């Protein structure tokens, strides 16, 4: 039986990005050779629509570009994603880099200017705190070497 891995659905080509598009990544899709992929979109799991305004984290809270505080929806999305990770017994997750939900290590800095800062998206942070290893798409090789 293959190990189950959570994967940001936008990396698998699902049109769940704020813009209504995706972040299709062939290397992420190819992980299906080694793992059972469990697609997740925390922002959708938090009840946010597609398309939606872009959001970024500022002072620990999540705001849409027009200034709406969406922290509650992002927290709900993170909790629902953790629930699925536990239900499916996933030891690791491949999450889209820089996102206010999925980013791990670096995220957009809250100024909506494309600048990055140190920090984690809400879902990446919650998964990581609950011992689910989080990898961004630039570390797919590492994920394979550790969990294959
Ligand atoms: Fe992709 Fe994560 Fe954003 Fe959903 S919340 S569109 S999975 S980066």
**Largest sheet strand order:** 2-1-5-8
What's the total helix number?
5
Calculate the mean pLDDT score and round it.
Answer: 98
The percent of residues in helical segments reads: 25-40%
Small-molecule binders: iron/sulfur cluster
- Describe the largest sheet: 4 strands, parallel
> Over the alpha carbons, how many angstroms does the gyration radius reach?
14 Å
Q: How would you describe the oligomerization state of the chains in this entry?
A: single chain
Q: Tell me the fraction of residues in β-strands, as a range.
A: 15-25%
Report the end-to-end length measured between terminal Cα atoms: 11 Å
Summarize the structure.
The chain has 5 helices and 8 strands, in the order βαβαββαβββαβα. It has helices at 26-30, 42-45, 71-87, 122-129, 140-147; strands spanning 3-8, 35-40, 55-58, 61-64, 92-94, 106-108, 116-118, 133-135. The strands form 3 sheets. It has a 4-stranded parallel sheet with strand order 2-1-5-8, sandwiched between helices. Strands 3-4 form a two-stranded antiparallel sheet.
Plain-language structure description:
By secondary structure, the protein is α/β, with parallel strands linked by helices. The protein is built from 5 helices and 8 strands, in the order βαβαββαβββαβα. The chain has helices spanning 26-30, 42-45, 71-87, 122-129, 140-147; strands at residues 3-8, 35-40, 55-58, 61-64, 92-94, 106-108, 116-118, 133-135. The strands form 3 sheets. Strands 2-1-5-8 form a 4-stranded parallel β-sheet, with helices on both faces. The longest helix has 17 residues, at 71-87. The model has no long low-confidence stretch (mean pLDDT 98). The site of iron/sulfur cluster has 12 residues, from α2.
